[in-house]
Amino acid sequence: MPVVENRLISHTFTVISLLITEMAGSEVITKPTKPSKSSAGLKERGVGLVGALSLVAWCWMPAHADARDQESIKADAKEQIRAAAASAFYIEAKNVEVRLADKRLVLPNCTEAFEVTFPFSDRATAQLDCLTPQWRGFIQIRLREGVPAFRYNLPLNAGDILKRSHVIRQSISTEDGNAIRVTVLEDVLDKKLKQRVQAGEILLENHFAGAVTGTSPIVDDGGVGAWIANEIIPRGSRLSQKSFSWGIVNGRVPSDLIHQDAQFPMLEALRNIMPGDKLRRSAVKMAPAVRKNEEVQVSIVRGSLTVTNVVRVGRDATIGETIEVTNAESGRSLRARVTGIGQVEIL
Questions:
Q1: Which of 110, 172, 218, 247 has the fewest Cβ atoms within 10 Å of its own Cβ atom?
Q2: Which residue ranges form the domains of the chain, and what is each CATH number?
């Protein structure tokens, strides 16, 4: 394709503008006489020429005029996707790579922020929706690997007791991974904070009074207390205390036994746990308080009126998170906060 200099393009526009103006002016001052065939044909050719010149002018519009808009739109969309992925996958926004460099992808100038969702389980596809104008697209993302960590989701004062609802789990960059960060949440749950902490701070072992890491409770006779399964617990199941009994283990014992005040409903089996197996941290993971597509009953109180509905959860979430839910009857989307196991509160 030939390269045309800007001054030539400008000259072309100037000539075209003069021609169009002259033709338009000529048409205005023409006397209202009965046109001859030759003059009528000339006029038609003149109108056709004006249209052709207008088309040429449109074709010569600089291509970069729209490219600048796309650059700005894509920059905003990238930040929105990063923020949504950070919330959905418990990862820092800077560890989310959004692939929007393909120039063939043209995003609309959405009047409101894009709605970002992750409809597939591949952790690599973001869905963008625009209401005005109506548009939908799928964008590839890549989650860079990090190290697991816990962050406070609200400020706490010295002397406060740490609860599970006070923290969120997140994957952080390896360079941000502090050697004394808390890696097992159960080690510091119900412990007293020694200092004031801010929302977003990473949990560190030295934040707590009497925190113990990687150990099991020792009883007076030298044995070690442990939870022992008394039935088969399938992989993926939420734990229940009735499936275990507390017992004393003598001799060599695993170092990752879960202590006596374990919060069973917040744990999920990573593998089949058989009768007689000891409950270990390596066999469980943190379970979401609500699961994707789980139906939860909610009550909305407005004065003396109480309305009870069933909503469908949009994604797995832990206590304290804000999620999207769908009214099972009307299909209307709502925002809700997770308040407990199988419990949400409409915002």
A1: 218
A2: 9-24+40-58 (no CATH), 65-143 (no CATH), 149-206 (3.90.1210), 224-286 (3.90.1210.10), 295-346 (2.30.30)
